[in-house]
Amino acid sequence: MANLTNVHPLLQLETALGRTLAIFQQNIIQLADAIGLDRQTWLIDHLAVRVNTQQQGELWLASLLKCGQLLSDNQVNGRPIYLVALSQPLVFAEQSVSVIELPLPKNKRYPQQGWEHIEVVVPFLAKESPTEWLERLNRQFCLNEKPFLTVKVGEPKVVGEQCCNLSMAITFTNNIENRTCIKLHPYHIRDVVKQAR
To answer: What angle do CA 3, 94, 72 make, to 5 degrees?
Structure first.
């Protein structure tokens, strides 16, 4: 399994994706520690990038497809989002990650293009409702006691998706130096893709 210290095909790309992955990893670890996520037990299901132009998105998609194959190209919140399954998993923050998300732009402009967030799976407990899931995460990570973090809750609208895959997105409130985001979901992205087919 390739680590960031070894040569993964993704790091050989002559793009910002390869050049900035190590910095993105450092920023994600800093945010995870601030949240209180246990990095020994968390399950990262994918990494995500953001672009501001169709052209940049198509260039990065072509680069990612050199390292894997298309897992899904669905409409999410009215824009196409590509999921690329890497042929060789990437070790990121001591996790084996094999899926990269790349949405094409809609009408939002991002402060910077490149790696933006990771998504971590926190499954529902037995008979737990979506509201109870959110309340449990708020309690578990004491989010109401951390004003330096901003929490945004949503439910992505995916064409064909049948499960309630809530999203709790957490960022630093003052995110000038660290613009990364960690999103918590109850379902793994591969399970969501299977249900949508």
So the answer is: 80
Q: pLDDT exceeding 90 applies to what percent of the chain?
A: 53
Distance, CA of 118 to CA of 42 (rounded, Å): 11
Written as one letter, the residue type at 26 is Q
Contact 162, 196 (CB under 8 A): yes
Query: Alpha helices of the chain — where are they, by DSSP H?
Result: 16-19, 21-35, 54-65, 130-140, 189-196
Question: Which tens digit of pLDDT belongs to each residue from 111-140?
Answer: 788 899 999 999 999 999 999 999 999 999
Tell me phi and psi for residue 25, to 5 degrees. Answer: -60, -45
**Whole-number mean pLDDT of the chain?**
87
